[in-house]
Amino acid sequence: MKKKKQINRVDKLLELPKEVYSNEPKIVITGFDELIIENFKGILEYEEFFVRINTYIGIIDINGYNLNLENMTNDDLKVKGKIESVEFERTID
Fold first, then answer.
1. pLDDT of res. 72
2. In whole angstroms, how far apart are CA 86 and each of 14, 28, 78, 81?
3. What pLDDT is attached to residue 4?
4. Is the dihedral of CA 39, 45, 46, 52 positive or negative?
5. What is the mean pLDDT of the chain?
6. What is the 3-state secondary structure (H, E, C) of 22-58?
7. CA distance 62 to 85
8. Looking at the DSSP assignment, which residues form a beta bridge with residue 34?
9. What sign results for the dihedral spanned by CA atoms 71, 50, 88, 1?
10. Quick one: 83 exposed, middle or buried, by C-beta within 10 A (0-12, 13-18, 19+)?
């Protein structure tokens, strides 16, 4: 608990975004055709119509069609295609 308080103090001092110092995912959706996820653990499932991404706090399900994984690095990935829905399954509180 003490370490978490120290991180919060440093964050406030340096004005760092939470996703920089934590494992929480950051999701950016641009229109209906592009989604970027930062801080993910791995890809659980990948189909043209469904992508399932594991994060440190849960699972992200992306539904649509013509879905493609682009620009994937160790820290983030981009999903492009016709995105119809995004669902979240929290695994830790």
1. 85
2. 32, 11, 14, 13
3. 53
4. negative
5. 84
6. CCCCEEEEECCCEEEEECEEEEEEECCCEEEEEECCE
7. 6
8. 30, 80
9. negative
10. buried
Residue 78's identity, in one-letter code, is K
Mind listing the domains of the chain with CATH numbers? 18-90 (2.60.40.2000)
pLDDT reading at 8 higher than 50: yes
Confidence of residue 74 (pLDDT cuts 50, 70, 90): confident
pLDDT interval class at 73 (50, 70, 90): confident
Token representation of residue 1: 């608990």
CA dihedral 40, 77, 79, 35 (to 10 degrees): 70
What the block records as the tokens of 3 is: 């370490």
Q: What is the pLDDT of residue 1?
A: 46
